[in-house]
Amino acid sequence: MKQNNLSVVSIVKSETSIYDEVDFIDMVSQSISNLESKGIAIPSRGKVFIKPNVIMGSLARESITTEPKFIYGLISLLKKRGVQEIYVGDSPASYIKSSYAFKETGMAQEIKRAGGEFVDIDDISERVEISIPDSDMLNTISLPKKALEADCIINFAKLKTHRIARMTCCVKNWVGFIPQDLRLAYHQTRLPKLVSEVHKVLPESLCFADAVIIGEGDGPDLSTPRFLGALLSSNDPVALDVIAARLINIDVNDLIFTWTAFLDGIGEIDQNKITIIGCNPDQFSLKINRPIGVLYNRFPCNIILGGICEGCFAWFMGPALFWERDSIWEKINKNVGKPTFMLDFNAKDINFEQHIQCGPYFVIGDCTPHQYQNDPRTIYIKGCCPGPKIPEMILKECKVNKEDKWE
User: What gap in Å lies between CA 211 and CA 89, rounded to an integer?
Assistant: First the structure.
């Protein structure tokens, strides 16, 4: 996976804390020089595919997506080195159109300005089915053709917290290569292994992580911006994640995606075996606020939980947080009263008859007990995991108008 046997992580610090004055191109240039000083090859010909983190239409300064000016700088520098064909693509979350997300973030404009080419990797014509050797889950998977054909793949992640993974950076950034329907079906404890397997069949040569403004709190889509002013780069996605976690004081042992990749032989997780070049991470690290995973009493509704399903949790918690931010819960309560939500296997509601009287009763996911799914008074949201059907059906049944919906 990584070039040579040395795991190198470069850390470049911005000279200013004013975001609009950050020299993004210079930070990329310094990062490349640091890596080259340790013998890491930087492409100067052939085809390059860049995978940023563009999960939705939010801006980089909002701590959600990769800064487009970093991508502009990287493409420009690679062009000067002699690379002729540079493609950039990602698949957003929540079935948002890739073209929309790239336009709204400013990424599409910066790619075009630098001479690169945007690729809609959600377009079926841009994908090809390949085999996954030694997988215990899938025989084949659909992956982007341009990435498979590239001589060099560059991972350009965004450092931020994540409700399920604790932190998302380079290793988890490969989720965006997985088809959306498959991503949804495996969005449980199997997803880290699938991501690891995709890294093995579609390995990156170089990694970068935008940590100028990192996301803390309820990430990855509603994180709170916090200035750190760093750009990390590496030849090893696991090693970069390890140092990134150190920068924001997250215990590496909490990183399930990163550990899964390491145990699959992808990179180095032992900090004593990682060579750091550039700034000392301990001199400007932050203690960040982490996601709060509690559902009980957090929103104006009744919550009935069984054994946790990470997919259903993510697809309920994310919209619920947006509804809190956008005052949608107030509309729900005004329209239908106090709703009840049952999630996950072996759930049991001893106050079922009382809750039915409070407002609509939603039974979410196929793993919930059949007695609640089949009760004619409940609203059963089918699927494992139902994904976007969860917020769609809740808002429909709660009579929230289209213009009020969480997007």
Answer: 20
Q: Are 213 and 19 in contact (CB under 8 A)?
A: yes
Helix (H) or strand (E) holding 405: none
Using DSSP's 3-state secondary structure scheme, residue 44 falls into: coil
As a whole number of angstroms, the distance between CA 102 and CA 106 comes to 6
CA distances from 358 to 55, 169, 303, 339 (A): 36, 42, 12, 7
pLDDT digits (tens, 9 = 90+) for 11-65: 999 999 999 999 999 999 999 999 999 999 999 999 999 999 999 989 999 999 9
Using CA of residue 233, residue 209, residue 292, residue 198, what is the dihedral sign? negative
What digits encode the pLDDT tens for the residues 247-260? 999 999 999 999 99
Q: Which domain holds residue 179?
A: 7-283
Place of tokens 């390491």: 262
63 & 154 share domain: yes
Please report which helix (H) or strand (E) contains residue 392, including its range.
helix 389-397
Residue 298 in contact with residue 323, Cβ under 8 Å? no
* Domain assignment present for 296: no
Same domain for 315 and 246, yes or no, is no
pLDDT of res. 183 = 87
Looking at the fold, whether 212 and 356 belong to one and the same domain comes out as no
For the chain, the domain total comes to 2
DSSP code of residue 94: T
Whether 257 and 307 share a structural domain: no
Q: Quote the CA–CA distance of 364 and 343 in Å, as a whole number.
A: 5
* Residue 291 maps to a domain: no
Can you tell me the distance from the alpha carbon of 255 to that of 93, in angstroms, rounded to the nearest whole number?
Answer: 20
Q: Are 311 and 188 in contact (CB under 8 A)?
A: yes
Q: Among residues 283, 310, 331, which one ends one of the domains? A: 283
**Does 79 reside within a domain?**
yes
- Taking the alpha carbons at both ends of the chain, their separation in whole angstroms is 37
Distances from the Cα of 98 to the Cαs of 101, 118, 314, 352, in angstroms? 5, 10, 21, 42
Global pTM value: 0.93
Q: Enter the tokens of residue 14.
A: 């911005």
CA distances from residue 61 to 64, 222, 288, 297, 343 in whole angstroms, order as listed: 8, 12, 17, 31, 34
Residues 375 and 309 in one domain: yes
> 67: which 2 tokens?
């800064």
Q: Which amino acid is at 244?
A: A
**Residue 347 and residue 216 share a domain:** no
* CATH code where residue 127 lies: 3.40.50.11440
